Amino acid sequence: MIVFPNCKINLGLNILQRRADGFHDLETVFYPLPVTDALEVLSPGQLQFNSTGIPVPGNAADNLCLKAWHLLKADFPELPPVNIHLHKHIPIGAGLGGGSADAAFMLQLLNNKFRLELSTAQLIAYAAQLGSDCAFFIQNRTAYATGRGEILEPLELNLAAYSILLVHPGIHVNTGWAFGQITPRVPALSLRDSIQHPLEAWKDLIHNDFEAPVFQAHPILKQIKEKMYNAGALYATMSGSGSAMVGIFPKNNIAGILWDTGYRVFEII
Ligand SMILES: C[C@@](CO)(OP(=O)(O)O)[C@H](O)COP(=O)(O)OP(=O)(O)OC[C@H]1O[C@@H](n2ccc(N)nc2=O)[C@H](O)[C@@H]1O
Ligand SMILES: Nc1ncnc2c1ncn2[C@@H]1O[C@H](COP(=O)(O)OP(=O)(O)O)[C@@H](O)[C@H]1O
Q1: For 162-268, CATH number?
Q2: How many CB atoms neighbour CB 94 within 10 A?
Q3: Is 222 one of the catalytic residues?
Q4: Atom 35 in ligand 1: which residue has the minimum CA distance?
Q5: Tell me: the pLDDT tens digits for 171-215?
Q6: Is 160 exposed, middle or buried (0-12, 13-18, 19+ CB in 10 A)?
Q7: 58 C-alpha vs ligand 2 centroid, how far in Å?
Q8: Secondary structure letter of residue 189 according to DSSP
Q9: What is the pTM of this model?
Q10: Ligand approaching nearest to the C-alpha of 50
């Protein structure tokens, strides 16, 4: 069985307060985009994991795909060992949630393949144990998110009338470090309200709290954002804790921007 975990971008990200458990309450809008990994699971077999494509940092044993299998195995002893192959295409440490997407798709794949009969709510609860933005990928539809990022409200927002540009300059931002740079604050205008304004107004209303510290550490990211606006973007932002940059352009109006050849660039037109 093969599935194609997709990435997400954040439209706005406010870090509201630090919690007793060390995490932060936040508000953000998750928006799914069709830049994908490929995840194949074969059985029967020995429990095995290998990956191709972009190298995943860390030990294979810590890969979120394997963690998802172990999480379900603890509650479903009958779950057989599987042979997992991940082809990694979504940039890593980019604020695109690629690892979380792999984990959520793995949970769903195992649920379907082995008829575990888990409900959506149960899958969301398992996903939330694997990562704060993992729950989003279970339903994988645009959502206003609060709590750690796992409390999701569906949001009617469709950007199909625009073209979206993703630029990843290859900088890996550690999410835990990024949270450590923030002084949490509740903004005067909630993202729940500001996201309802026309996209043309977002530039002045919708912010990502991670931009200030991450731009300070990596000034090239601010330049990419300015370059997007100079090229006609209606809205430009960093996604999540970075370093992927997002530009939302009038339909079919992305072409012609020149980027460093080392960057990975995705156009959703
Ligand atoms: C910042 C966001 C915004 O969408 O995305 P990314 O930039 O990673 O994609 C997410 O909240 C990231 O979610 P995720 O990548 O799953 O984070 P986790 O693995 O749960 O946590 C990584 C680390 O980030 C910090 N963390 C994460 C989420 C949260 N609400 N508060 C936190 O303080 C904690 O220090 C934690 O140890
Ligand atoms: N399947 C996976 N894909 C990507 N990263 C993974 C995976 N499994 C574990 N990780 C770990 O998660 C970290 C980043 O996760 P990722 O979700 O790609 O970051 P971000 O949310 O910033 O895009 C990596 O440094 C890696 O150590």
Answers
A1: 3.30.70.890
A2: 25
A3: no
A4: 176
A5: 999 999 999 999 999 999 999 999 999 999 999 999 999 999 999
A6: exposed
A7: 9
A8: S
A9: 0.96
A10: 2
